[in-house]
Amino acid sequence: MLAFDLGEPTVTKKLRRSRTKRISLTGEIVISITTAFRQAKIYKTSPYEEVILYIVHGILHLLGYDDHASRDTRLMRKKEQELLAVIRPLLKKARR
Hints:
The protein has helices at 33-43, 47-62, 70-95, and strands at residues 11-14, 20-23. By secondary structure, the protein is mainly alpha-helical. It has a single domain, classed as Metalloproteases ("zincins"), catalytic domain (Collagenase (Catalytic Domain), 3-Layer(aba) Sandwich), CATH 3.40.390. Mean pLDDT is 80; it is low at 11-15.
């Protein structure tokens, strides 16, 4: 299980007319390793890659992204790929 304590610090978001809103994120991401292994076989990836995808996917959900409607799913998949394109090279360096 992976857990992220996002309760502190709060994020300040600037709104129109110079107002600010404090946003507190609290969340937990739980990953099924069994599912990661099964999906890795189906999609011909590694379980490691699947887990990284699940982490990114979970973080996007915590940030407010949704994947229930097809339009939202496309937007979320696009954001996942953008983030994975940045993360993958960093992870390859870290694994050396």
